[in-house]
Structures are given as C-alpha cells and as structure tokens.
Amino acid sequence: QPVVEVVDIAKTYAGAGGVPALDGVSVAFARGTFCAVMGPSGSGKSTLLHCAAGLDRPDRGDVRLGGEDIGRLKEPALTRARRRRVGFVFQSYNLMDSLTVWQNVLLPRKLAGDRPDKAWAREVIARVGLSGREHDRPGQLSGGQRQRVALARALAARPEVIFADEPTGALDLSTGREVLTLLREAVDDFGTSVVMVTHDPASAAWADRVVFLADGRIVSELGYPTSEQIA
Ligand code: ADP
Ligand code: ADP
C-alpha cells in the first residue's frame, strides 16, 4: 500500500483565470522511498504537495494518506491526521524563533497530543549533527543548521512521510548537499518516506524516482534515474 496516493486530483485557484494549477493528477508514492517532484515554476508542484499532505484540498479527486481517505475528513480530524502522519521541511525552515532547538524538535508530538520521545529526539538531533546545540534558538544558527533542525523536527515525530518543498532552495551547494544526504539517510536508515519538490536536477538525483509536472499534469516519470535522464 502506498504511503501517499492521489487519484485524479484537480485544483483551480480563484483568480487564476480558470487556468488549473492541477489538471487530473494521479500518483502513488511507495512507502520507504525517496521521490522527487520536478517541473518548471508554476507547473503545480507545490499545489500537488499541499494537496497530498492535507494542507489544501483539491477541487476533485481522492487523497489517501497512510491508507486513510483524507478528503472525507473535516477539520479538526484532518489536522489530527496530518500531525500524526506527516512531517514537513520547507525552503524557509518554518521554525519557531522563540523556541530552542530542543523545543522545536519536540513541538510536533506535543501538538499531536503525544508524549515526546526524548531518547529518539536526542538520537535524531545527533544524526543531523546538532548535539550540543539543543539550547540554541534558530536565530543563533546558520541556514544549513536551521534546515537540519527542521529535518530533526520532522523525524522526531516518526511520521509516515516527510514532505519537503525545495528544502535546499535557500542553501548554498555544499550545505544543500548535506541536507539531501540526511534526507537520503532518513529513507535508507530509518525507513522514512520522502516526497520532495525541487526544480534542481542535482537535488532530484538523490531520489529513487522522479515525477515531472508541466501545466498541472504529470508528463513523465523515471525510476532510479541516471543523471543523463534527468539533465
Ligand atoms: P510550482 O510549485 O510548480 O511553482 P504552484 O503549485 O505553486 O507551482 O502553482 C501552480 C499554478 O497555480 C501557478 O500558475 C500559480 O500561479 C497558481 N497558484 C498557486 N498558488 C496560487 C494561489 N494561492 N492563488 C492563485 N493562483 C495560485
Ligand atoms: P557532482 O556534479 O559533483 O557530481 P552531484 O550533485 O551530482 O554533484 O552529486 C554530489 C555527490 O552526491 C556525489 O558524490 C554523488 O556521488 C552523490 N550522489 C548523487 N546522487 C546520489 C544518490 N542518489 N545517492 C547517493 N549519493 C548520491
């Protein structure tokens, strides 16, 4: 069973002149894999990610998250499902600046009403190379360190899937590679599923599979791509 599946979803934003952002997209993301979603700016990548993650609702079509049909859920059940099943890593980190690294990492489980797993939180903070920085606040950290906090925060809640929207978009090349390495390790070592939106072929090369969008439709898919195929 896929960790995330969308079936024939479509969405047109108000004020977009009737031009659909998504126009009949079906895709299933396999559990324990790293999948990249690529495509030009405006092709619908973020809209697909937001719909798949339960952050936004498509106009039609089904969204299944961990086997659960989230289209049928009303708030606050949708929020609960998202908090229980999904982790997020955004280009702009989206950390709470007033909280410490430790508090940020423990926050999702708190919000979900679960008891924090402190041993696991310590392990993921170590894994992203931030042991000893638990009492720092995001403002004291570099961009790469902040993104590693965001990744630790996502991992700490043991989500079924991590959605990453241009996770290296604000980082320099080598710092970006460190973050991609950690996402890859999360899949290989922890069995996490990752769905990553990127416009960067070098970033997509870390994924097991690449789905290409154009004008709100899937135009091609590659499994285990070679760099020639995605160039
Ligand atoms: P991508 O992530 O590939 O750049 P998006 O999903 O952000 O693409 O956008 C797809 C299309 O939907 C674009 O034409 C964009 O301008 C439009 N769009 C995205 N968000 C909104 C919004 N909130 N309101 C109106 N149009 C939007
Ligand atoms: P370069 O242009 O230096 O080859 P890349 O971004 O293609 O840069 O790759 C950077 C490093 O990441 C290389 O050492 C490459 O072997 C490694 N790499 C690329 N894709 C993957 C992947 N899917 N899994 C593991 N390592 C990868």
Automatic annotation (TrEMBL):
Keywords: ATP-binding, Nucleotide-binding, Transport. This is ABC transporter. Residues 4-231 form the ABC transporter domain. InterPro entries: AAA+_ATPase, ABC_transporter-like_ATP-bd, ABC_transporter-like_CS, ABC_transpr_LolD-like, MacB-like_ATP-bd, P-loop_NTPase. It comes from the Bacteria. GO terms for molecular function: ATP binding; ATP hydrolysis activity; transmembrane transporter activity. GO terms for cellular component: membrane protein complex; plasma membrane. Gene3D superfamilies: P-loop containing nucleotide triphosphate hydrolases.
